[in-house]
Amino acid sequence: MSLRPTVDFLLHDWLKVESLQSRERFTDHSRETFDAVLDTCERIAREKYAPFNRLVDTQEPHFDGEKVTLPQATHDAYKAYAESGMLSAAQDYEVGGMQLPYTVEAAANAFFAMASVSIGSGMLTSGNANLLMVHGTDLQKQVFALNEFSGRFSGTMCLSEPQAGSSLSDVMTRATPDGADFESDALGARYRLKGNKMWISSGEHELSENIIHLVLAKIPDANGQLVPGVKGISLFIVPKKLVDTDGQLTGERNDVALAGLNHKCGWRGTTNTLLNFGEGKYPVRGEAGGGLDGAGSGAVAYLVGKPGEGLRCMFHMMNEARIGVGMAATMLGMAGYYASLDYAKNRPQGRPSGAGGKDASRPQVRIIEHADIKRMLLAQKAYSEGALALALYSARLVDEQHTGTAEDADVARLLLEVLTPIVKSFPSEWCLEANSLAIQIHGGYGYTRDFPVEQYWRDNRLNMIHEGTHGIQAMDLLGRKVLMENGRGLQLLAERMMATAAKAETSWAPEAAALRDALKQVGQATQQAWDGAEPAQALANAVPYLQAFGHTVIAWIWLDVAHSLGDDNSAAAQGRRAACRYFFRYELPKIGAWLNVVKSRDPTCADLPEEAF
Ligand SMILES: Cc1cc2nc3c(=O)[nH]c(=O)nc-3n(C[C@H](O)[C@H](O)[C@H](O)COP(=O)(O)OP(=O)(O)OC[C@H]3O[C@@H](n4cnc5c(N)ncnc54)[C@H](O)[C@@H]3O)c2cc1C
Prior knowledge:
- By secondary structure, the chain is of the alpha+beta class.
- The chain is 51% helix and 11% strand.
- It has helices spanning 4-14, 31-49, 53-58, 72-83, 102-116, 123-135, 138-149, 310-346, 371-403, 406-442, 453-460, 470-481, 484-503, 509-530, 535-538, 542-564, 571-587, 591-599, and strands at residues 62-63, 68-69, 153-158, 174-177, 190-201, 210-218, 233-239, 241-243, 249-253, 256-261, 272-277, 299-304.
- β1 and β2 form a beta hairpin.
- α5 (102-116) packs across α8, α14 packs parallel to α18 (591-599) and α16 runs antiparallel to α18 (591-599).
- The longest helix is centred in the middle third of the chain and has 37 residues, at 310-346.
- The two termini are 47 Å apart.
- It holds the Pfam family Acyl-CoA_dh_C.
- Belongs to the acyl-CoA dehydrogenase family.
- Residues 494-609 form the Acetyl-CoA dehydrogenase-like C-terminal domain.
- It comes from Limnohabitans lacus.
- Residues 34-143 form the Acyl-CoA dehydrogenase/oxidase N-terminal domain.
């Protein structure tokens, strides 16, 4: 099975991505240039990623106290990806980019996520550099971002701490001005940073010449106290190795030390680290590790943007990262679907029941002939292809936000606000379920490491946890996104759904009616959840709300895709129509149960005293 026809269908037949050519930024692009990018990524993923997916799972990163060793295959894949130009694909020509629409970039990256999500394709590096291109000074862009785009340096995002995961307002890493002249450093106001960052992906390795950490920390007030809440958080560049204003390494190691690697359930090809900043392991610039608290005087750090605006800047990276996480979850779902489809076509087991029962003298059938196996295949297809369509639709909104008229850009911005929690969370939950079904189709074999599906499930299990847990995404959706700007984002989304229902009125009448009804139910639940309620009551069932909202969105996406097929009668079109029908008949009706507890603000869980558990 090849992913390419599905990607081509969604990009060209459904989203009409070539129409972006009319935008000034994309005039040099055409179907040919888009195809060339997709061809290259498909080939690199096939040659440098897919064959090594199991190897990076079994040969976990190893730390000998000095260096982290990764398999050679990871180095080769990193190099091939950097050389493809994908790290700066969306950037301007003048900084070496391709001015590629984000929609095509996201589609191209899907090939890597499917081939080996855990080798990774530089999402953190390009996200880190993209952030600096927006919030950094000219020199920060030149020295840090451009070297990340070329692959010479790599990037991280350092938000989480052992005691501050979901609650970033509790960040304790502190940054103090470095000397009287701290503001005159050409690379940005210079601070000394101390603290511990937990769970940092790609925090240590030898893949690149340098690692550029983007770190959230607090600048103490005049009394030396950390400002409570997120307002006190600032953003800093902390290079692993110090550089001069030409981006050359100065030969000084910054005081960023690997305290240890985390040993994960999946996604094992990427290092995951606990980093100590400024504890004196690598005393830097004139201090010998003898600060007041016995530690060093801190890692050298350069302020990005203004003090106190760290989280706002970081959100730039987090939104991109959330679409990236959704895409990763989606492609793992797709990988499991293809693997189990292939298995089901080849595994003989059981015989069909005829009028006189089963005839044991007849040969066994392949399991794809059993209705229950078909159900599990169609569920995987509906979750994964639906999620891919949504991710690409959202990527297209990003392009609209960047290149559309002021009015269209604003509409795209609001739609993205509402859709981002779904783009991240729907695939994290349901493409994980798809992976579970892929294991089920393999029977006992699926539960062994001789087949790839158990690894897909383990790799995918992360996605409901990082970049904002499922629970946090749900509260963001119900507590903020559907309410913001007087509910305008939700209203705009509803209009798009109604437009799809209207055009599908004749060809898909029952589905169009079901979508209208689902939308009505979501609207009522949103109102009833908040009707005179305290936030704690309204949000107590935020996750069922997220589930219902996500299912409504994917039903809409499937109806739009199915309608666009017209009278195409190819096998692929039949499959897509069936996936749409499956979603409306087997999945969408679930929203009733989810929304009932939201509407009634059911207190069964919230009010149960601890002792009763
Ligand atoms: C493999 C991996 C890679 C990661 N990569 C990075 C990285 O590169 N950079 C980075 O900064 N971080 C990274 N993270 C950290 C990740 O973002 C956090 O794990 C996540 O934000 C959750 O924080 P936590 O683990 O401390 O869990 P907690 O915040 O303690 O949450 C535990 C549970 O409590 C729930 N919960 C918490 N607060 C509330 C609340 N107010 N209301 C209701 N429920 C609540 C959560 O939903 C969750 O189910 C990574 C994590 C992992 C596992």
